[in-house]
Structure formats: structure tokens, C-alpha cells
Amino acid sequence: MSDSGYVHGYSLREAARLADQADTLAELLHHDTRFPAGSKVLECGCGNGAQTIHLAASSPEAEIVSVDISPEHLARAKARIEAAGYGNVEFQIADVFDLPFAEESFDHVFVCYVLEHVTGPERALECLRRVLKPGGSITAIEGDHGSWYCHPTTPEAERTVACQVEIQASHGGDALIGRRLFPLLCGAGFHTVHVSPRLVYVDDSRPDLIEGFSKNTFIAMVEGVREQALELGLIDEASWDKGIADMYKATGPGGTFCYTFFKGTALK
Amino acid sequence: MSDSGYVHGYSLREAARLADQADTLAELLHHDTRFPAGSKVLECGCGNGAQTIHLAASSPEAEIVSVDISPEHLARAKARIEAAGYGNVEFQIADVFDLPFAEESFDHVFVCYVLEHVTGPERALECLRRVLKPGGSITAIEGDHGSWYCHPTTPEAERTVACQVEIQASHGGDALIGRRLFPLLCGAGFHTVHVSPRLVYVDDSRPDLIEGFSKNTFIAMVEGVREQALELGLIDEASWDKGIADMYKATGPGGTFCYTFFKGTALK
């Protein structure tokens, strides 16, 4: 993946969105991830540290190495972890396809929202497998935009989300990767593969998720590709604006919102 | 809902499908439903008794009254419950919109895969609310065909499922009702509404679900509307056959399958 090809971009608004997402979903996605004292953990594609902060908190005595291809992201991640006072994370620039680590260097690998953006996710998993010790584990978390739906829904709302999927595909990624996590992990040579879906369901009784997930995570993400969608001619401006407005309507009274993340674990 | 308008029909194959579905999904959908000894429970739209058998087993000392609009269905349900040796269920012909019970007759109401088929699900809920005692509970379970997706997927596979949704809509039903359960229950005057999604995720590690859910429940259901889809001109024969074949491919090695049911509970 080239730095400039990252579909969500590197803006501060995007950084805030990723932080919102990570905090709201932390319990759902991270509650069952704990790495033992003294174990060496590679977090690949840490971005601005939205997940790193949860890894550092959940596994305080593990030795975490967080890498990312973007110096801007890495600097923010480092600042965030230092501000929170954690001392168990080292940061390093690295490309998943060219990891600067010897074979069998790590006890555990953690990768979140990365495979969806790379061309050749199975090859990326093979690269991660190489630096893992025999018997070591990988934990991979991905979304699947095809799992999204809302009520009330409209063709325009569905089209805006489809635009995001198509744009991500045009960058070589796959926004529908969650459903593929099991065969990808198997295909990369891992065994004891287990994938568990994590469904986020939002209705009027869950105002924290309306704000933290539906609006500030999901709709904000889709809104982020507006210019690309219009430039590529994937949708006209009026339809786009109606689609986004319709999605916001589904965050109002009587509306509902659904999305599923997939968490996979496997052994080398 | 008129008897003849029931989208899935009344064939024996359909009866087997509904039984398969109920057994495979029983734990997922029923594990948290228990009615106390002596309580009066109305199961509305019991069909051939696929859910009744689980209600009877889970609440052995409740007094269950199971009603359905179809004499054929009701006869099968009665035979099934008698064969299993349960004595806690009475059967009666009834239409949800014209229930032959006095106001405030029941402590609990249970309704499963019924609201999706009726024209006016909110009105149906109001009719059920009428026969419920103040403080009594309703439990409603529905699917949402828009929550289905698979890997690998194809436009034809997605189109066959969309045909089912359109056919159900043409009968006045709504195959996307799961996502609406929360606002429907609120709109019908219930309070303390809680809706919990129940996601069925199937990959190679879950052969029982490949057979019991993906093939014998979901694909079998879609296959059941083949003639209607072709007669209505919703799809051509070649596309239909490819779509079904593609869905079966997703039940093979490396394939995955997802579907979400919604279970709502609320009080009068």
C-alpha cells in the first residue's frame, strides 16, 4: 500500500474519527485481547494509535512494537501513547510487505483495519506470519461495509456506502474484507483459525452509539470520500447529499443502524 | 394476512425447512426465553410448531395457547407437540387481527416470523397488546434478509435474495423487518423495549451451520420462491439458476455466510 493511497486520508478530522471509533468500540473489539507479561507483540499498521492505546492498557507488561508506513500517523500515535503515560510501546516506521524484523521475532501479531487497505491481504498475512514465532498468535480485526444497513433506508443512502466500497477497491483495497477473514487466515498458512463477528446495533435506546458509532464513525467515514466519489463520477452531487442526509435520518428517532466487525485469531 | 398470501407456502418441504431452521437456531434465539409456572402465554402464528416445541420445552409449567390462521399448519403443530409428549400447549385457529380472546387475557405473548408477513405489523402488535395484561411482556423474533451476505458473492446471488424481498413486499410483507423491530414495538405502545440482534455467521469451522442454516434454511427458503420470481419477471431463469449456484458455492470450502435475526422484548 502506498502512503498516498490510504483511502481515508491523514487529516486531523480523520484522526478524531478514528479515535471516536476506537473508544466506542473498544469494549466490543478488545475485551478478549490480552497479551502475557514479557511477550513480544507486533502491532502492524498502528495508524495514529487509536488501537495502540487499548493494547497498551490491556497488556501492560507486554513489549509492544507498533509500526506504520506513515511518519505523520506514527508521530501522532507516539504522542498519544506518551501523553497517556504508557511505557510499554516502541514505534518504528515499517511496511507490512517489507518488515524490518528477523523471522520468528514476535510471540503475537495484532493487525486492525489494515488488511482492508492493502493490495494482496493474503500476502500481507504471510509477511506477518514470517516474523511470528512457531506457536505464536495473530489477531486481525476488520470491518465489512456490506454488513451495513439502516432504517429507514433509501437507494441514495445505500449508494453513498457503495461509493466508499468502490473507491476503496479502486485503491486496491477491499471494504468487504471482514467476511473473507477466515479463508484469508487459512490461506496464509495459519491454523486453529477462529473468526467471531462483532455486530454493532444502534437504536434510540443507545444514544452513545448513535453519536460514537453511527454519526462520528460510520457516516463521518463515508462523508470523507465525498470529493473522490464526485470526481470519479460514481454519483451526482444531489444524490450524494440526499444519501448522507438519509443516513443521518436513520440516526434520529425511530431509526436504527447496523454494522459488523470481524475479529479473527489464529496460530502459526 | 390471508392464508394464501403466505410467501413460503405450505408444502412439506417448507415444513421440513422450518423445522431445520428452528432446531439449528434454537439455542441462539430461545436460550433467554423462559415463562414462569402458571403463566398464560399466547404464541401467535405458530405455523407447524417449529418454535412451539422449544417454547413447550423451555417453559414446561406455563400454560401455552398457540394459534395460527392455517388449519393445515395448526394440525401439524398439534401432531408434533403430541408426538413429543408435551401437555402444556393448547391449539386454536385465530387471526392476529381478530384474536378470539378477551382483553388482558395473557401474561406473555410470543410471536416469531409473523410480523414480516402481515400488512400492518404495528397494527398486529397493537392487537397483541390488547390481549396482554398490564405489565405483561411480548417477545418478538424476526429476520432481516437485507442482513444476509456471503463470500464469495456475485450480483446474481444478491439478486435472487432481492427477489425474495420483493415478492414478500408484493404480498404486503416486509422481509427487512428485523431492523424495524424497535420502532415498531415503541409505536405499538409498548415500553421498556429492548432489541438484541442475533447474528448467524458460518464458515468452514461450522459444518453444522453450513447444513442446518446456510443450505437447509436460507438457500432453501430463497429457492422456494423460484417460480414466483420467474412468473413475475423479476429475474431471468439463467440468472436465477446462477444466483442459487453461487450461493451454494459460498457454502463450500473457503466460503462464508452471514445473517442476522432480531429478538425484541417489551412490556405493556
Structural notes for this entry:
- The structure is a homodimer of 268-residue chains.
- In chain A, strands 1, 2, 3, 4, 5, 6, 7 and 8 form an eight-stranded mixed beta sheet that branches.
- The first copy, chain A, is 40% helix and 23% strand.
- Chain A starts with 11 loop residues before the first helix and ends with a strand.
- Chain A contains nine helices and eight strands.
- Chain A has 268 residues and is α/β, with parallel strands linked by helices.
- The interface between A and B is medium-sized, with 29 and 29 residues.
What's the short version?
By secondary structure, chain A is α/β, with parallel strands linked by helices. Chain A has helices at 12-30, 52-58, 71-83, 121-130, 155-170, 181-187, 207-223, 226-231, 237-249; strands spanning 40-44, 63-68, 89-93, 106-112, 132-142, 149-151, 191-202, 256-267.
Largest sheet entry of chain A: 8 strands, mixed
Strand content of chain A: 15-25%
**Helix-strand category of chain A:** alpha/beta
| Strands of chain A, total number | 8
List keywords for this structure.
8 strands, about 270 residues, about 25% strand, 8-stranded mixed β-sheet, 9 helices, alpha/beta, homodimer, about 40% helix
Describe the secondary-structure layout.
The structure is a homodimer of 268-residue chains.
Chain A: H1 12-30, E1 40-44, H2 52-58, E2 63-68, H3 71-83, E3 89-93, E4 106-112, H4 121-130, E5 132-142, E6 149-151, H5 155-170, H6 181-187, E7 191-202, H7 207-223, H8 226-231, H9 237-249, E8 256-267
Parallel strand pairs in A: 1-2, 1-4, 2-3, 4-5
Antiparallel strand pairs in A: 5-8, 6-8, 7-8
